[in-house]
Every structure is written in structure tokens, then in C-alpha cells.
UniProtKB/TrEMBL annotation:
GO terms for biological process: tRNA modification. GO terms for molecular function: oxidoreductase activity, acting on paired donors, with incorporation or reduction of molecular oxygen. Catalyzes oxygen-dependent 5-hydroxyuridine (ho5U) modification at position 34 in tRNAs. It comes from Neorhizobium alkalisoli. The keyword tRNA processing applies. Pfam families: Rhodanese (PF00581), UPF0176_N (PF17773). This is tRNA uridine(34) hydroxylase. Its EC number is 1.14.-.-. Residues 135-229 form the Rhodanese domain. SMART domains: RHOD. Keywords: Oxidoreductase, tRNA processing. Belongs to the TrhO family.
Length: 314
């Protein structure tokens, strides 16, 4: 390799294509669609999770380029999902263990009835225009993700609700009267789906100028150069890559398989960290009996690896 050559970017050379997708639509036949969708994915070697409900579809899957292209065509052939959009990234290893198609009451659980993004929703803002909006002193910027996600990355100046689940978000909004102090509300999440519901909820609560980042953090990290970025840290993703950074390259975080929190290289050096057993986030909330159980699971994972197999709990 010459001095001027550079290594290929991991996100353009990974063997597996990862597709994050969601679409709100009236989908009355969702229960009947589960089996055909599961069979299609299984037959094409696709793994991941797809949630389907009366309000639409949501999920992230991975597979070969051809398999993912065929699956997206299969979904868009359904009248309800003809306008489905998705976001792509790559992974060097298959980031999921299995394929699951789940029936749900909501494709993203807020727990508030009659919130319909097809009826009322905030204004989409393209990634290229996002910096200008959130730099406006008349804008309040809100992260709609949960605390374990915001812990490793957040937009500069964003308000972090510190929610444990998305169900807590409506009460947080109702209890924060200061949100009315500025005319503009800007909201963001990983891929855009939570903001669809969050902005719909905000509009229902009487907020007028409500905006959300189109395509979410994933699209922003894909399109906005790092030198122009207002994003700080890494973005948590719900697969074995754990986090991604600008250019959608894989981050350096690992996942604690005891509590499912992302952990940094520095946290791995903590005396409270034991692979598959504990980390500084959960050590004080688990009993020694819990840790012994996790150690047994970790032993089974190691034995499966020696046999060249993948343990279901890894």
C-alpha cells in the first residue's frame, strides 16, 4: 500500500447489509402477514427483528445485499408499505442471532391511545438543515431516546429526559412546563420512528412548531461530515455492533450481557466488569446469586464457541 492509499471504510466493505426500517400505515391484516414474512426471511437467510401491528411495521434486519433487496421489494409489494423507506449500513459479521417477526399492539410503545402519525405529525427536517434549526436560540432540542442510549452520545445542547422507556416520555412532557418557553421544539431519535409518535403527541398537547430529524441520527451520521457535525459521541444501535459513529462505521462500545447497557473501553477496565456477568452499571443492583447464574451462562457460551457453534444466549 502506498503512502497516499487508505484502507477501505468498514461500512462500505462489510459482508452483511443492515436495513433499519419503519412505516406507519393502517395494517389490519398484520396477524395474517406474520407467517409469510417470517418464512420469507428464513428462506433468504435474513436475521433480525421485525415488529408488525395494526399501525404498521418497524425493525432492523441483516443479510446479503440480494436478500435484503428482495425483502424490501416483498414489503413494498404490499399496498400498505408501498412508500416504505429504509436506512442502510454494513456489518463485518452477522449482527443478529435469529429472525423474529413479532405481533405487537404498537410498533413503538408509547402507551398513549389514538396517537396516529398518519393523521398529525411534526415537520420533517433533512439532515443538511438540522444544524441551523437546533442552533436557533428560539429552539428547544429534545432527545426522545432512553437513558442507556443518551449515555454514549447526544446532540450538542439537547435536553435529555433520562427516561428508562418510551412510555415515560408523555409524563415527562406534561411535567416540564418550561417546554413552552420557546416557540420551536426539535426532536430526534435513532432512526426516526419514536419521533413520529413523539411529535404527534406534542402536537396533540398544543405545541405548534414541532420538528423532527428525518431519518434520525442514522441518516445524520451518514450524510453530515464529521467536521460539520453537532453530534457528540456514538449512537447506540440495537444489534451486536452496539454503536456506530460518523460514516456509519462501527463504534468501540461493547454490550454488558447482564444488563444490556453499552460500555466503553474505560468501563471494561473497572473491577466491577466481568464479561457476561457484570459491569459498573449493574454490579450494585445484582446479587451474587445473579452473577453465579450469569457465569454459568458465560461458560456455556465459551464452550459453544470452542465447538464452533453459536450459543443462543450470547
Amino acid at each position: 500500500m502506498t503512502e497516499n492509499q487508505t484502507l477501505p471504510r468498514p461500512e462500505t466493505t462489510g459482508a452483511f447489509l443492515v436495513a433499519a426500517l419503519y412505516h406507519f400505515a393502517r395494517f389490519e391484516r398484520f396477524e395474517d402477514f406474520r407467517s409469510p414474512l417470517q418464512a420469507f426471511c428464513d428462506e433468504n437467510g435474513i436475521k433480525g427483528t421485525l415488529l408488525i401491528a395494526r399501525e404498521g411495521i418497524n425493525g432492523t434486519v441483516a443479510g446479503s445485499d440480494a436478500a435484503i433487496a428482495d425483502m424490501l421489494a416483498f414489503l413494498r409489494a404490499q399496498p400498505e408499505f408501498k412508500n416504505l423507506e429504509h436506512k442502510e449500513s454494513r456489518a463485518a459479521k452477522m449482527p443478529f442471532l435469529r429472525m423474529k417477526v413479532k405481533l405487537k399492539k404498537e410498533i413503538v410503545t408509547m402507551g398513549v391511545e389514538d396517537i396516529d402519525p398518519n393523521r398529525i405529525v411534526g415537520t420533517y427536517v433533512d439532515p443538511k438543515d438540522w444544524n441551523a434549526l437546533i442552533s436557533d436560540p428560539e429552539t428547544i432540542l429534545i432527545d426522545t431516546r432512553n437513558d442507556y442510549e443518551t449515555a454514549i452520545g447526544i446532540f450538542k445542547g439537547a435536553v435529555d429526559p433520562q427516561t428508562k422507556t418510551f412510555r415515560e416520555f408523555p409524563d415527562w412532557v406534561k411535567n416540564h412546563t418550561g417546554l413552552h418557553n420557546k416557540p420551536k421544539i426539535a426532536m430526534y431519535c435513532t432512526g426516526g420512528i419514536r419521533c413520529e409518535k413523539a411529535t404527534a403527541f406534542m402536537k396533540e398537547q398544543g405545541f405548534d412548531e414541532v420538528y423532527h430529524l428525518k431519518g434520525g441520527i442514522l441518516k445524520y451520521l451518514e450524510e453530515v461530515p464529521a467536521e460539520e457535525s453537532l453530534w457528540e459521541g456514538a449512537c447506540f444501535v440495537f444489534d451486536e455492533r452496539v454503536s456506530i459513529e460518523h460514516g456509519l462505521k462501527q463504534g468501540n462500545h461493547k454490550l454488558c450481557h447482564a444488563c444490556r447497557n453499552p460500555i466503553t473501553a474505560e468501563e471494561i477496565t473497572s473491577p466491577k466488569y466481568e464479561e457476561g456477568v457484570s459491569c459498573s452499571h449493574c454490579y450494585d443492583t445484582r446479587t451474587e446469586e445473579d452473577r453465579q447464574r450469569y457465569r454459568q451462562r458465560q461458560l456455556q457460551i465459551a464452550l459453544a464457541k470452542q465447538r464452533g457453534e453459536k450459543h443462543i444466549g450470547s
